[in-house]
Amino acid sequence: MKPQAIVPSTSPVNANSRWTRRDWLRAGGAASLLAGMRLPALAQPVSAAAEEAKAPPLPALGSLLNLPRINLLDGSVYEPAASAGKPLLVYWWSSTCPFCALQSPSMDQLWQSQKARGLQMVALSIDKKPEDAVAYLKKKGYSFPAAWASPDWRKTFPKPRGLPITLLRGRDGKLILAEKGQMFAEDVEAIAALV
After folding, report:
1. What is the set of domains in the chain, with CATH numbers?
2. Overall pTM > 0.90
3. How high is the pLDDT of residue 187?
């Protein structure tokens, strides 16, 4: 059998092409050159899991809880001074969180039953876009005051590790409840006794 001559390929690699040692070395050199370059456009974004791993733990009971000013999804604004001396419920959630989906109906019922007693509430969505949160709230018919907690805003008020997160600040400004993970309906209803 007569050996075939190997001809360097000038086209992209395909199943029928045969590369010489020189072709492989040339391709390897180009790959090495690219690997050594700093290309910010090729950098991977920080994953949600890596971001969550850096999140702080729940704040300690008895600590002061000061929620900064934030634009609400209905176009109004949460002003910290408006909730001074009143109980404040802070609820971290996402439209893609299955545990939030189970807890949110109870949170809306709590809001409806306790707002006349002075309960203030801000439900902080961590959805990728505010439009996702707006669409979800509309679809579900929730009326609790909600805001989109943008990554920039979260630098001033970081989300604790976990989701959903439920925090209740008493009338004195100190934290009286801090829960990580889904709360059952009866647990959410029990918050009314703390208002």
Report:
1. 48-194 (3.40.30.10)
2. no
3. 97
